[in-house]
Amino acid sequence: MPGTNLIVPVVLWGKHAPTHCISSVYLSRDQKTLVTGCYDGQICIWQVEPETLKMTPRCLLVGHTAPVTCLSRASIIQDNNFIVSSSEAGEMCTWDLVDGKCRESVKLTQVHTNIQAYHMCNSDDLRLFCNGYYAEILIMDPFSLEILFSLSSKMNPDWISALHVLRPSSRKDDVVLAISITGTVKVWSLLGHENKQSEPIYENESKQIRCLNALSLNCCAYNQRTVLIVCAKYCQIYDAGDFSVLCSIQAPSGERWMTGDFLAPDKILVWSTEGKGYLYKLPANSVPDHKGFHGPSVEHDSPTLFSILAHPDNKLLSCPPAMRFILTSVGGKQRRLLLRGDSHGVVSLWNVDDAVAAPQPGETTSHAPIVLTSLEMAWAEMNPSPVGILDQFSHPEEPEMKLTASIYLLAANRLVVGREDGSIVIVNATHTVQLQLLHGNHQQLDDLPLHQLLLGHNGRVNCLLYPHHVHHRYDKAHLVSGGIDFAVCLWDLFSGALLHRFCVHAGEITQLIVPPLNCSPRIQKCICSVASDHSVTLLSLTERKCVTLASRHLFPVVTIKWRPLDDFMVVGCSDGTVYVWQMETGHLDRVLHGMIAEEVLAACDETLDNELGGAITSGTDLQGLANPALHFFRGLRHRNLNAMRAATQRGLAALQATDRSGNAGPLAEPARARRAPLTIQGFRSNPADPESHILFFDIEGLIVELLSEEYSAMSPASLEAAGLITSEYMKVAALTQSASPDAAKRISDFFGRVKDKAGDMERLLKEKDKHGILAKMKEGAETMQTKLQAKAEQIKAHLEPKDETPTKRGRPRDMSLAEPPPTMEIAQILISLLHAWGLDPDLDRVCESKLGLLRPMVPVCFGVVSRHGHMAVQLPTRLGGWADVCASAPDDPVLMTSDLPAELVRQEKLTRLFTSKLHWELSTTLTTNHLLSIVALANTLMSMSNASFVPEQEVARRLHRPTTRTSSWAGDEEREEQLAAQQAHIKQGWSLLATLHCVLLPDKVVAAGAKSFKRPQVEMLARRWQHHCLEVRDASQALLLAELGRLGPKGRKSLVDNWAQYLPLYTHTESINPNAAKKEPVEKDPRDQEEEFEEEEEDQIRKPSSIAELKRKQTTSVVLLGVIGAEFGQDIASEGAAGNKRRKDGDSRKSSIVEGFTLSASNNLARLTALALTHLLLAAGSPRLPSHTPLRRAAVDLLGRGFAVWEPYLDVSQVLLGLLEMCSDADKLVPSMTYGLPLTPQADSCRTARHALTLIATARPAAFITTMAREVARCAAAPAGAPPLPAALALQRGRAEVLRGIELLIERMHAEVAELLVEVMDIILHCVDQSHLKSKGLNEVFPAICRYNQVSHCPATRRIAVGSHTGQLAIYELRAGRCQSLAAHTGPVTACAFSPDGRYLVSYATSDNRLSFWQSTAGMFGLGAAQTRCVKCYSTAPMADVARLNPARLARLVWTNSRSVTLMLADGSETRFNV
């Protein structure tokens, strides 16, 4: 299911800072950003104040599964905020530092140990030179992370241990200097035009020197004549010319060197594993400018140590720190700093310039760091400390109980949390979240809300599992927990009783997993547990005993796979061995090593894929393809992050993240088709840490839940009354079918039933299978029926447990799960957190009193989920960075006079600042996601009846669902009126809320004093133009149009110029020729489409670096230019007219619209956009561009919206036929445009296409009618025996749609249709099945057309006459199936009518004031041509000019008997004429 990225993560960090054992460091040149990577795989971004170097941790990036070994900048541009990180598992990511989005991520088989970013000659930006555990040097693009080319070795190829890239002063090319681990120095020179296709690039020269396992190699930047090579025991200076040793420095005793660099031609800085920096002055023979350079070394010529950079306290470190020598420039001033991050998470900075300053000969000075900070210190500074999810249980005096495991039960709305002391607490999840984050009455409770306590473990609870969530074959009441006391406990969730305690392991329990679905029945009732003594067991929950104990593993277990059909459980260990166990007997089948072991593991993945129909793509790429000893699958050490990553990768669908291994549970069977509106996921960066918690609010899941609750309570009649489904359409569709009596009866029955007042949903659904009423819900699976069943099951579930255990008195009452589903509470929490409080005080009051929103108590830590399941979460300590903003803000007198402690007053003030201003200054991605979410939710709630979060109203709403009751007493009526008034208030409240965030927010935030408001991103919104969730679609369209409107003509112009270059180009032949789809540029691979347009930020437009990115750019460009053209195309100023906007009227399209919509006259932008859109509409479905994608829907929608702009460049008939083709299945009764639940992609395309046809028809009625008539004529002219043309087929299948369009036009645009009546009649007669006209008159079959006086039908002779705008009379003979045309009048025919017996036809035209009688004589016996001639002509009195104003009502002709006719004029006069 496409991950839509509309997920809002909110983090509750708790009192303890995450462990951050630093493995790599990076400081940006402008000294504004510090980045630290840690051994657990996270990356922390710190905000640095350039002047004082004060550092504040801002955000944590989660995504790597192994230690982060390298960090590097991604661009030469100073304020380009991207960095590249690489881990020991071969994963590389490019991160956006502003909002923490992962822009690109790859997993290589090569593992890097070092990355140098270098700006090559002839390249527009940096390239990454990487070396590591492989024999080449890889040159990569930092943005697409593609390997551009690699440098290979001819002479003794080996792993490269260090490299340095430089540009010699006098030359144009770049030189790469590298040394292999065996001590071969190699030199490559690069000209900058190398690429993957070129021959292998070998070194220009190489030389063997005595230097094994070098750690770093640096060429002196000042003269490029000396090279410093550092090894662990010594570092040496070499002459760059012939690589001979000039001098050498031994490492201090007990320490090993790490790396070094030149500070001057004669000074070097080297640092050691103890985290100290040593500054040496080099002897004369090692300084190139000195006359003794390269001379014989004299005794006293040894390097002298003149300064040491060290910590005064000299604390022992558990592993070598990460250190880096950095040059920064701030305000034109250069600084040299030594940066170090150590295993305690402490970051320290030394100013090297101080140390170099003036060494006194003969003495060694020592310098302390100028800055020291760590996450823990930042956490300690926070007062009050950050909120945790169970803070209501902690007392200030007692030490806090650490939370160690947690799991969220969605249906029951319960959060189950295991703690350090072995207790398990169960609380109401939405309630506990409200307690931590929001103000409100719930804060006033003196007693704690009821919760349940399960006591049974001694010591820490390690893991929890609720098997029923993973698969419903397990008992609803069972909860399983594993602890440090070697025990696995089985609990009854409802009574809180300990049912059984399994003590079979001899180590603490680390994981609990659910076996897959297709195991044998006995194993299906088991769960699998893994313990730290390397044993794995299968424990049967029903038999309450251990079925299998697999315990002979010598190394820790890292992965468990299943071969259910062979009854095998496959266990992979950290040393790469694989044990195959039989599940039923517990017999060890075999032990495998090496390649075959990996193949067996891979084979398990394949079987899993096939069973799910390839449902899991993540099965294989999560496999560590690198050397298994380095990193095999996901180590238990990282189990938490991995569960999270795997979860976000699975679209958070089944994230009942009970199973911590991420390789069985949720993947074992496709997860529930419905997405959970809220998931609470425990999260820790290191196994030793207590858990923090992340709340994932899934906007789409939430909207679907809200709407399905709403719709399931309505009967079909009320659904139709609300305009959500339409039965009108069926009537039109019926006309296109032949009128067999039983069909007619079926249809009328059907309507009788749909309208049936008592008709309940169940009945509607039974019909559904016959007629397919509501388009199949979401991606095929979810029909309303299953929704109802799920509902019923849920309610049953709430009731069942009561019956099971009526005897147990001790059950706390709040655990009866019979509460309503928590959807409304989840929506309440989310909207309260996202709403911009403080921008509009009046609206805030409405929100609190009418809508029931609650004000936040603390500034919320939001997160961003980016693609590949990576995530960025904000740290609570970033508040430190806002202290000055807070201080300068005005104080609220009410707060100041309250008796709250000072720190709480400060926090409240910060919170208010945050909601009104700082929240919208964080990043464009957050602004976009949050605005989209809140607008979409506000619209959803506005469409529901009485949707308010005020508790009393919620009850009222449940009682007064718009049911179809008939009785009403007097008292009831008053109540109804009150409710109606209240309903109106609430709806208005939601509408104001949506307007604030959609339209007014930017101006208000800026007015509130925001310096850097981050605007919503146009391209993110454009990609959601046709999102499959209707509410999100509407919200993004509204936001995008508001934002484009706010940009003004200039802003739009520059936007158009930026994106125009990505518009895919199509030639005419290509867009029409269906075979061209193969080479077509806008293809989106199925994978891209799965991700449904991911976002990436674009500050300055760069060349797209990869095919995938180019495709994303192209889709965005088509949609964006389409929207601008369609909505603003009329007013984009032409360049010639020097920017004065010439507004075009709809009809004077002479040199019109497109002028400004161009880059240059030759390259006409409107034309290209129109071509691209039609191509997307017409291209045949292919794997590259499937038939129903959001992109196609967007193209369809924009063709409809901007038809007036595109028309000159379109082949109108092709577009219309293409749309008809899309609508052809519409007679399955697609719900109307306002029906909120997601439809299948096909139904969605169909709905959009219908809407587009309507828009086109009303925008250009003439074009619509003439084009259709032309196609009809073409069909009629086709020879009888020939196979039908595709156009004829499309017309045939879209007949109902055409009739609907014409009906609509007659209704809305009476006059325009009158001018084309003959064509309209052609179309109608083609589309309506003729059999209907045998038995019924035209006014019954298609009443709309009979509103014209120019149309007359004679059932007796089966002829239809139509008077045209040109004065012609067209007479259709339905029997013979032909049409003849007579020149009757000189001007438009005003009216015509057949006599009752059909012998005469009378016609009248006001233009020439004539009334003529016509008689047709058939040949003998109806053979030969029928002749129609004028029998009589009368002149009539001219008509008064006033009466001509309304041509539709000018005149009517009524036959009083078979020989006389009365002419009734608009002024009321009547005249009789006789034949």
What does the model show?
- The structure is a single chain.
- The protein is α+β, with helices and mostly antiparallel strands and 1475 residues long.
- It has 40 helices and 62 strands.
- The strands form 14 sheets. The protein has a 9-stranded antiparallel beta sheet with strand order 2-3-4-5-51-50-1-49-48.
- Strand 57 and strand 58 form a beta hairpin.
- Helix 21 packs antiparallel against helix 25 and helix 32 crosses helix 35.
- It is elongated and about 140 Å long.
- The two termini are 72 Å apart.
Summarize model confidence as the mean pLDDT.
Answer: 76
Please work out how many helical segments DSSP would assign.
40
Find the count of extended strands (DSSP E, 2+ residues). 62
Low-confidence sequence ranges: 609-673, 750-818, 961-968, 1067-1102, 1132-1156, 1158-1163
- What shape does the CA trace take? elongated
**Distance from first to last alpha carbon:** 72 Å
Strand order of the largest sheet: 2-3-4-5-51-50-1-49-48
Category by helix and strand content: alpha+beta
Largest sheet composition: 9 strands, antiparallel
Would you summarize the structure shown here?
By secondary structure, the protein is α+β, with helices and mostly antiparallel strands. The chain has 40 helices and 62 strands. It has a 9-stranded antiparallel sheet.
